[in-house]
Design a protein that fits this description.
Blueprint lengths: L1 E2 L15 H13 L4 E3 L3 E3 L2 E2 L2 H14 L5 E3 L3 E2 L8 H6 L8 E5 L9 H10 L3 E5 L5 H5 L5 H5 L3 E5 H4 L5 H12 L5 E3 L12 H8 L2 H17 L17
Parallel strand pairs: 1-2, 2-5, 3-6, 6-7, 7-8, 8-9, 9-10
Antiparallel strand pairs: 3-4
């Protein structure tokens, strides 16, 4: 499996607080079956991470985690940061791929200009990957909000703990509704610490009850991003999670 969202870089944001904690997260991911882990620190007003800081901390952790897991770069950018110069956006490319950018979905409210903001990413030649929209109350109430964004080319990344219910009923139902509507493309941990949103990708796959879909969400699509390949078609049928 491939996890393309974590806050494993120590002392850079609200994730790992030291090298020991970062290595514990790496070991937990490896035990869970994750072979590649993206270190995606916050890039926003309270954590103004620069590409140079991200790369420096990543290089140090890669040395320490050698033999445990493969670490790749990235950044989780706030919507307000998307007007940065194109070169900076690409420097935060997800998994080091300058064609994809992880964008943080707001936890409250729904910005009226979100489509225009994501267009800035597309105009830079990058595909926006929306992180954890299923945790937003507006999306939980109206999952169709994501339809026009996906139609414009955005990908949607769900949090593993939402899919399997660790983040509560609303996040679980929203994630399944988005999957049912074919509005979700990846599952990632958004891991912040060994005990905070633990990696748990295997638990999310098990909760899906569909091995082929789980493989697509945790290996097929993220693997194409890592290796620069073509995104594979979604397996399975519509209405996977609908109940009578």
């Amino acid at each position: 499996m491939i996890d393309l969202h974590s806050h494993v870089l120590p002392r850079l944001d609200d994730g790992a607080t030291n090298l020991h904690e970062a290595l514990e997260m790496c070991r937990a991911a490896a035990r869970d079956g994750v072979e590649i882990l993206a270190a995606t620190p916050h890039v926003r007003f309270d954590y103004p991470t620069t590409p140079e800081e991200m790369q420096s901390r990543l290089a140090d952790l890669q040395i320490a985690a050698e033999g445990i897991i493969r670490l790749v770069p990235g950044g989780e950018l706030d919507l307000a940061e998307l007007d940065r110069p194109v070169e900076e956006l690409r420097a935060f490319g997800l998994a080091g791929n300058p064609r994809f950018l992880l964008v943080e979905t707001p936890y409250v409210g729904w910005p009226l200009d979100i489509a225009q903001r994501l267009h800035l990413v597309s105009a830079a030649g990058m595909t926006p990957v929306l992180a954890h929209p299923e945790r937003n109350p507006e999306v939980q109430a109206r999952p169709e909000l994501l339809q026009p964004l996906v139609e414009l080319g955005a990908l949607v990344q769900l949090t593993a703990a939402s899919v399997d219910g660790r983040l509560g009923k609303r996040a679980r139902l929203a994630s399944r509704e988005l999957l049912d509507r074919r509005l979700a493309h990846l599952v990632a941990s958004d891991g912040h610490a060994p005990a905070v949103r633990e990696i748990g990708l295997s638990r999310a796959v098990e909760a899906l009850g569909d091995a082929a879909l789980g493989e697509w969400l945790t290996a097929g699509v993220p693997g194409a991003i890592v290796h620069g390949g073509t995104l594979p078609p979604r397996p399975g049928r519509r209405g996977l999670f609908r109940r009578p």
